DNA sequence: GTCCAGGTTTTTA
DNA sequence: TAAAAACATGGA
């Protein structure tokens, strides 16, 4: 169990291991946490703002006291990643290598709608531009938290917009996909609550009713937005990684925690290229 | 100017 | 049915 106490500059966490800020926030799973000059990260989730930093071995949260449990959950700090890593590492030597490359990754529990919308924007796009579009989406249509930060606009808000309204986002052809997703979620044609407990293939099919959502975007939404760890999203990087590092292996073979393996591998592959 | 980016849809053969 | 091409935008 993670424990915490109030200290002079925030809330100090105890009993946290297998967690690194850079590994977690820069492994490609989220687009709304940015590193600050002092090495801390600031981001927003569910309309709440968090500043988080490492001080020596200690993690310090800067947030409202009442939100601590929300952030512990969001950061997935109660899950035993060491155990998961040990089990995954036994499956393949290259998976062990990948896990050691970014041992502090945790799969964030992002909001379903935000994850879905973000990964619709991600298609045929690069990460800096995805972050820019998501940032403008929040700035234009989210609710103001302070002078610099905004919430992620909900589906109902976006469903009332037109392509013209979305023009300043400069998201290109993805505008119609965002609007289709927003209207289907807002009018309950697709129920996010229901999807949470649906068998994985049915959940995938539900999300794929949205224009612009194929298998990969659906899997990303399920893994990052619904915390369905059995999902193993395959993008161009993962396809390359599987060919080169795991010939003859398919993602399902990594089992109930395949999604965690996917993050280790994705991050590892991208850093190999540099 | 060309190529490419955490894909998907549409068109073509 | 399967393989190309198109899709907006912007940085390299």
What does this structure look like?
The protein has 274 residues and is of the alpha+beta class. It has helices spanning 21-25, 68-74, 81-89, 93-101, 112-121, 127-141, 155-159, 163-166, 175-186, 192-197, 200-207, 215-225, 236-245, 258-273, and strands spanning 3-7, 10-14, 33-35, 41-45, 48-55, 58-62. The protein has a six-stranded antiparallel β-sheet with strand order 1-2-6-5-4-3. The structure holds a DNA duplex (13 and 12 nucleotides).
Task: Give the helix/strand class.
Answer: alpha+beta
Strand order of the largest sheet: 1-2-6-5-4-3
Specify Rg, calculated over alpha carbons: 18 Å
Please, how many helices?
A: 14
The pLDDT mean sits at 97
Order of helices and strands: EEHEEEEHHHHHHHHHHHHH
Number of beta-strand segments:
6
- Low-confidence runs (pLDDT<50, min 5 residues)? none
What percentage of residues falls in helices of 4 or more residues? Answer: 40-55%
The coarse silhouette is: globular
